[in-house]
Amino acid sequence: MSPGGHVTRSKRDLPPMHYSFKIESFSLLLKTKVEKYESDVFEAGGYKWRLCLYPNGNTKGIGKGFVSLYLQIENTSNLRHRWEVTTEFKLFVRDHINDKYLTVRESDASVKRFHEKKTERGFDQLLSLQTFNDASNGYLFNDCCVFGAEIFVIKPTGKGELLSMVKKPANGSLTWKIRAFSKLDRMSYSKAFTAGGRSWRIDVSPEGYGDGKGNSLSVFLELVGGGKLPPKQTSSKENCVGRIQATSFGPTPWQTCRTNFVTLVYLLQSYTWFPQVHATGRSP
C-alpha cells in the first residue's frame, strides 16, 4: 500500500487496456455501508485478477478520507509452489467531464511482485474523498463513476547473448611448402591449422584470380566452415603471408585474398622449385 507521497497522477485519453468497471448510483452503494467492493475476475498477462474498492477509504491502512483501490491476484491455488508474478500496473478513474482517465501509478515506475504473502497491491490514497465527490472534477458524475486497471506481466524469456573478448589470444601459424609448383593448374589448398579457436587454411591459385588472373599468383586465407557461422558472428585475422591485415570474416564471405599477391614473372624468377607460403591467423 502506497502513501500519497509516492504516487504519480496524470491524465490520458486512452481507456484502461485490460479492465474497467462502472458503478451507477454510487450514493446508494455508500448507504449500504459496504466497506469493500470486489469486481468480477478478469484476465491479463495470463493470470486472473480483480479490483478491490474501498469507497470510504481503507481505514486499516492510511486511507481515511480517501478512496482506496487495489489490484488483487486470483486463483493462486492453481499456481506452482512458491509462485511469484512480477508486474507493472496502473489504476484508473474516469474524468467524465473532459473524457479523460486519471492514471495512478507508483512514482518510481518500479515493478511490483505478487506472491503468496503479497496478493494485493494498490493505493490507500487513490483520490481524496473531497476531490472525488466534487462533481466539477468529473470523477463522480450524475452519481456514476468508472475505475479501471492496466497490467503488464514481466516474463523473462531466458534469451541472451555473451560477448567474450580476449586481449592477446594465442597465435596459430602454418608454413606451406609447395612442391612441383609448376605443375599446378588449378586452386590448391593447404592443410587446416587452428588459430583463436577457429580452423583456417591457405588457398593458392597458380594462374591468378580476379584482376590477377593470368599475371599474378593469388593467395587466399580461408576460414574453414565460415559459411556455417551463425548470423552476425564474425572472426578476424591479422596476418596472411605478411600482406593481408585486419579483415573481418562473417557468415559470408569466409575468404580474404591478394589476387595479385606476386606477379608470375617474379615468382618464376625467384621461386622456381619450392615456393613457400606462410600464414598467421588470430581470432578474437
Automatic annotation (TrEMBL):
Organism: Populus trichocarpa (Western balsam poplar)
Xref: PROSITE patterns: MATH
Annotated transmembrane regions: none
Domain of life, per lineage: Eukaryota
Pfam family, one: MATH_2
Domain MATH as annotated: residue spans: 16-151, 171-284
Protein name: MATH domain-containing protein
